[in-house]
Amino acid sequence: MQYTGLGNSGLIVSRLAFGVMTFGSGTGPLAHVWKTGQEEANRLVGHALDAGINFFDTADSYAGGESEIMLGKALGTRRKDIILSTKIGFRTGPVLTQVGGSFRYILNSAERCLKRLNTDAIDLLSVHKIDPWTPLEETARALENLVQRGLVRYVGYSNFTAWQSAKFLGIQQRMGYAPLVAAQMYYSLVGRDLEREVVPFCQDAGIGIVVWSPLASGFLSGRYTRQDPAGGKGRIANFDFIPFDKVKGYDLIDVMRAIASRHQATVAQVALAWLLAKPFVSAILLGASKLSQLEDNLGAAEVKLSAQEVEELDKLTAPSPVYPNWFQAATLDSAVRDALGDLSKG
Questions:
Q1: What is each CA distance from 230 to 31, 214, 225, 266, 286, in whole angstroms?
Q2: Which residue pairs, CB below 8 angstroms and at least 24 apart, start in 2-5?
Q3: 152 contacts 126 by C-beta, under 8 angstroms
Q4: What is the pLDDT of residue 232?
């Protein structure tokens, strides 16, 4: 297992982490995702721990809070050995105020998370999504209240734009609050938008990037093909949430199959190995509903892509340039770049 520090903090986390969104049951659009019972959850968590994973992530909105309850039970006495992360901000009930980033809602949500997880403190609490109706100053104040009370150790965010993240961090710095240390964001071979603004900001600010859906809802497992776009009724067939060009995706899978064959690996392992090759990626959240999936994903730690293979995948999936990024790249002074290096490449 590989380990790294999480942003500008003393937290040491496994680069392969375990996200337990599949734990629990429920109805609605995510009913096919929430399908793991307690017995299987115990096996998955136990196997992850034995493999060296020390970073576990959930959210209060997963399966109506059942995911947190099940994770707490599965960890049991080994809770003290791991970094426990959860997220708040999505709707958790029918009442109008049961959602968002208000001071009231964040405090109430966090206190309920603690009870469900059966723990005295949350190691990393992240705001799950932006609340456009609540000032960021209020949300920042709520997180700081939890830190000062000893209920939360570190704070982070998920799914913010770069400017929203920068503004939030600026508020914390101005007020002397505990700063953001982690950004949980979507990033994959078929979704590299993050590289335009978020990655440079996080590198500059010392914020660790934690990747969710590294396999793009399973597409990068190789299960979905031109011949079977539904992947045998896989997740995308029921919940096609992440937008990407599937035609180009099939071309990518063909290349990944060839790379996987050279490494005696699976397509999914190649997708994860590419992420592990990115130094700005702190941790990758693996998701699994059965042990065989988790075992396959863990095998990515043993797949070492060559520089040429990483470059091939980079070129094949490069995001289209946007302004002003393309202007800055095109007008970079070549003499200074040759003398001092290209800072845009970290």
A1: 17, 19, 8, 19, 22
A2: 2/276, 2/301, 3/54, 4/208, 4/282, 4/283, 5/208, 5/282
A3: no
A4: 56
How far is it, in rounded angstroms, from Cα 151 to Cα 70?
20
Contact 55, 13 (CB under 8 A): yes
Q: What is the pLDDT of residues 100-139, one digit of tens each?
A: 999 999 999 999 999 999 999 999 999 999 999 999 999 9
Backbone angles phi, psi at 287, to 5 degrees: -120, 135
Catalytic residue list contains 105:
no
Residues 6+ apart with CB under 8 A from 344: 200, 328, 329, 332
Q: What is the second-level CATH architecture of the domain 3-345?
A: Alpha-Beta Barrel (3.20)
List phi, psi (to 5°) of 83: -90, 115
Q: What is the pLDDT of residues 276-285, one digit of tens each?
A: 999 999 999 9
Closest CA to 182 of 298, 285, 287: 285
* From 62, 154, 177, 224, active-site residue: 62
Q: Are strands 180-186 and 208-212 parallel, antiparallel or unpaired?
A: parallel
Residues of the chain with pLDDT under 70: 29-32, 229-241, 243, 343-346
